[in-house]
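[[Sequence with tokens]]
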Amino acid sequence: MQIPYELILGWRYTRAGRSTRRNAFISFISGVSMLGISLGVAALIIVLSVMNGFQKDFTDRMLSVVAHIEIFSADGQALPDVARTLKEVRRHPEVLGAAPFIATQALLARGDDYKGVVVRGIDPELEPEVTDVVAALKDAQRLRLVAGERGVVLGVDLARSLGVRAGDKVTLVLPGGQVTPIGVLPRYVALNVVGTFDSGHYEYDSTLALMHLSDAQRIFRLEGPTGVRLKLRDLQQAPEVAQELGATLSGELIVRDWTRQNRNWFAAVQVEKRMMFIILTLIVAVAAFNLVSTLVMTVTDKRADIAILRTLGASPRSIMGIFVVQGAMVGVIGTLAGLALGLGVAFNIDVIVPAIEQFLHASFLPKDVYLISRMPSDPRQSDILPIALISLALSFVATLYPSWHASRVNPAEALRYE
């Protein structure tokens, strides 16, 4: 198969030697453009991969405490028929586990220290099917959550702030007071701390207290569980499954998936990712449009060659194709080099960052300051493919004007002084 001469000449111009000072300068500018595209593409891949890694790590920590889907009654009271709701949700093929629960707010006191907490009543036998943090509790701690003994498991940060550990007692101050002749007085209930949990998520480790479902029902004077928590096979399908369950479950129920519980945070992360993508894409655009100056200089230097090709019968379209190929080659090589560099760093960031920290004798994410003390990375095809396509598109667009200008060269004018 005969290769079009436009491709051959375009590739020859791309790798042209440095026979003259002008050719050397053109090669330098072309190399700078190629390097700029490579670094821009690599920076985009690395930054977006690290942001994805932080988001994934945060989501994993959050979902160790938060269920994929939660179901409540529309009036905010106890579910009318918990057994029926559990039976119906377990029929769905995406549901792996289901557990009833009670969630309410109260104050937890130890001496003069008072902390606002979310008290969650759980079934120690069913809850491990739904959340990893309860499944990770030691068997001894789960066994101590016995109905009637008023045991409580606290988040590690909550226990630390109250200065308690397993075996100590705390006081639960309930929101519903007792009416007395001197006014409404709060109700106090003594609880036994039977253990602590560490989800790695400060918001829950500092505010969540777990107790047996029947104890919570009795203490808060409820008729039954206030909701049901579900775990799915694929957490990314939670919005669709929630919508399906909302349309099929009996009774007036509210179905809420995990993405809605932290909607503001996820929305902020997405906005930040888009802004970083736009800002770093500008770096690639600047490098790509350096090709304009490179090709303009090449066209000026190759005017005689263009004139000779035109006199031999080359069409303006062919002349334009030669310089499009030259500029596109720079964009393709720069993009592929950037992909190789970016993916190499993104997939090995757990090795590269510690090596840099050791060399600089510094810690980028100190454990006593940040919840996530390592640099995570999660390269995704949904990010990498658009980066490569945008880089190639910008490189191609940058070649159009110089190539068009080359196709407009007048052979007689170019060869007049040759």
Summary: The longest helix spans residues 21-63. The two ends are 36 Å apart (CA to CA). The chain has a mean pLDDT of 81. The CA atoms of residues 11 and 397 lie 18 Å apart.
